[in-house]
Design brief:
The structure is a homodimer. By secondary structure, chain A is of the alpha/beta class. In chain A, 35% of the residues lie in helices and 21% in strands. In chain A, strand 6, helix 7 and strand 7 form a beta-alpha-beta unit. The termini of chain A are far apart.
């Protein structure tokens, strides 16, 4: 049957895929994969090919953005085609256009979901999902922008937490680190002076969500600037108002200063 | 080794678990599971036991909320214990207290993430993840509240989308349906008159996210009130400002009226 199945690879390595996703790959005629929208630090294409018994065709940004995924669409017009994507397939908005184009060409599409960095980081932190406002990506230095600072400020005014993803360019092996992201926010603070991101502001750094050894640390920005989070990917959370159970979670799970307890409600 | 591993079951059935999660269950001394924080419509405990070769102990709300998960904690103090939870384990905030208690007792804890309803619904809709504001749950009629209306209104003022989860009581086999949720919001509109949720407002209904046959429909509330979404679980999205690619996604993937195009930016 001709169809295009988007399968989420989840986080970290080739064992992040669901049983359903693995079955789809095993039963498909063509298997494509991209590994540039997110970092899967320990993913091995060879091991994945062993698991599925299928040859995997790796697509680059060029294939999808310049060529509009023509190779995938052509394959899916004639046969069952699986497209493997890190995380949950449409959280990186990159592939929505491909799905729309497939549907317009009359190709049936389906999604097999995978664990997403979004829910993973929220879960690791112990903070309450329904207290997060808008998510933002902090760009690499050459694209530095005031937007992340403004999003954090707006969310804080509403008492909400902000999840900040840190930009990556996996094809160039470049990843924004937590200390660079904090420096970028402090630079904006210096201009805008709204007090959202000072040396004494509490933030939560998260590294390697989805691996067996994630690092989580909640502290003042001053202390986080010199904290060693180890390998990427890295992310940040700026807490808004804390429920007492959330403060407890940050103290126990992210080694936050115990003084956080008195700020909670 | 004594440790407590929280494993996400993902969505829909027993094939939503990741390969890593399955391996954790196979190599653990005790396997506990709860199926009350979310609905996994086609999950079979028997099939899951076949897959893992382990006896699964099902816990009820009482075991976790009244008894504070004592059975899990006692097991994890002496041996490797896996706790299987629908979706991504900590998106339902219910289990954060259990994790904190385990850590305080000196039990090492880990998370193996699963696909979450949060990222699944956003992905299915084709809307951009970073344009969602605060998420809200619309309660069952006996707990009807103005909060969901207020959250939608606040997000809309900021141009943001709102993801609305619809409350479920799986132990009583009760699920809020999309038309009931819309009626509840229209009742609040009648009192507050802020124009956020009128008969002409566009919303997106999503049913059975994570299954092979999800239903997605974007339309005016007037039309959605009588649309048949089929079996639960069901959810709603209230779009804020739409990027033209998001409008295109709703038209192609959720059969929205083509007039949506002219409202997009």
């Amino acid at each position: 049957m001709n169809e295009l199945v988007f399968v989420g690879l989840g986080l970290h390595d080739e064992k992040g895929i669901s049983l359903q996703g693995l079955e789809e790959a095993k039963t498909s005629d063509h298997v494509f994969m991209e590994l540039y929208t997110s970092l899967l630090p320990s993913f091995s294409v060879e091991r994945f090919e062993m698991l599925t018994g299928k040859k995997v065709q790796i697509l680059k940004r060029y294939d999808l953005e310049e060529q509009s995924g023509a190779r995938i669409l052509d394959a899916a017009e004639e046969s069952k085609t699986v497209f493997l994507v890190p995380g949950d397939p449409f959280i990186a908005t990159t592939h929505v256009a491909l799905r729309i184009e497939a549907e317009k060409r009359g190709i049936k599409t389906r999604i097999v979901h995978g664990a997403s960095i979004i829910s993973a980081i929220i879960g690791l932190s112990g903070l309450h999902n329904y207290k997060f406002g808008k998510t933002v990506t902090i760009p690499l230095p050459e694209n530095a922008s005031e937007t992340p600072y403004n999003v954090i400020t707006q969310n804080k005014k509403l008492g909400l937490h902000t999840l900040c993803l840190l930009d990556i360019k996996t094809d160039e092996k470049r990843f924004l680190h937590i200390n660079q992201a904090l420096t970028q926010l402090l630079n904006t603070e210096r201009k805008k002076k709204q007090g959202t991101t000072t040396m004494q502001t509490i933030a939560v750094g998260v590294a390697r969500a989805g691996s067996t050894t994630p690092t989580l640390k909640a502290d003042t920005i001053e202390n986080l600037l010199t904290y060693d989070f180890g390998d990427p990917p890295q992310s940040l959370i700026f807490p808004g108002e804390l429920h007492f159970m959330e403060a407890e979670a940050l103290i126990t799970l992210a080694h936050a200063p115990a003084s956080l307890r008195s700020a909670a409600k």
